[in-house]
Amino acid sequence: MDELKQFKQYGIIQRFVNETDAQFILSLRLDDKLSRFLSPTQNDITVQTAWIREYKKRELVGTEFYFITVDEAGERYGVNRLYNFDNDSFEVGSWLFKNGSPSSFSILSDLATRDYGFYTLGFKFCRFEVKKNNIAVLNYHKKFQPEITGEDEQTIFFRLSIDSYEIFKNKLLKIYNYGVK
Amino acid sequence: MELNNFIEKCREQFVDADEIDLNENTLFREIGSYDSLTGMSILFMIKDEFNIDLSEEIYKSKKTFKEIYDLIETMK
């Protein structure tokens, strides 16, 4: 990541979130459809801005990376986040894309974000949790054949190795006409 | 696979499969629950069932399941 703090991959631009993105992120988190599986969000731009201000401190020391996906014109489409790093793994979450985004953007952004965790940060495993009733996202993640590490009444916890990730990633990239043919 | 079976396989890719009614002329992207993950699931169903790699670019140009089915038939 250069001084511009953004990179282009799979036809999308990923850049670090900043305070000017607060309203956009709040609009995602308050969207009726998108927020069904989120913890409640306070409808307060000052709270969201303050959260990002604190996040930027974590970004600076390399313990968390919050990406926003934009196009060449700078239009914002969605977000993804890497956090809770441990010795060999990172957690991925906060995956939200606005309605009407180009159909491939959310998936390509997920791949670009996890690529960052695996290849740029050098982790060997990716951790994530999915609500059991979030069927579309659950079905998507299961296609990578992750290991289930635990579950509670509402949530399943997963861990995915880089090897398993790459197998399904390459299938996805073939469909979206990137990389492996 | 006959058209009706294909439509049923497509229906199964929707998160609210039990609540929607599809036919060959349904404009499936207009169904409320349809999103990019549904599209991805349909593309992988086609790969699994027909061993055909349908690119998203071509998939996007098709509006109904009948159009997709007809395309697959020409690709076999």
Structure characterization notes:
- The complex is a heterodimer of chains A (181) and B (76).
- Chain A has 181 residues and is an alpha+beta fold.
- In chain A, 35% of the residues lie in helices and 28% in strands.
- Chain A has helices at 22-30, 45-60, 105-120, 135-142, 162-175; strands at residues 6-9, 12-16, 65-70, 76-83, 89-97, 125-131, 147-151, 155-161.
- In chain A, helix 1 crosses helix 2.
- The longest helix of chain A has 16 residues, at 45-60.
- Chain A is globular.
- The two termini of chain A are 27 Å apart.
- The mean pLDDT of chain A is 92.
- Chain B has helices at residues 3-11, 36-50, 56-60, 65-75.
- The model of chain B has no long low-confidence stretch (mean pLDDT 92).
- Chains A and B meet through helix 3, helix 4 and helix 5 of A and helix 2 and helix 3 of B.
In short, what is this structure?
With 181 residues, chain A is α+β, with helices and mostly antiparallel strands. Chain A is built from five helices and eight strands; from the N terminus they run E-E-H-H-E-E-E-H-E-H-E-E-H.
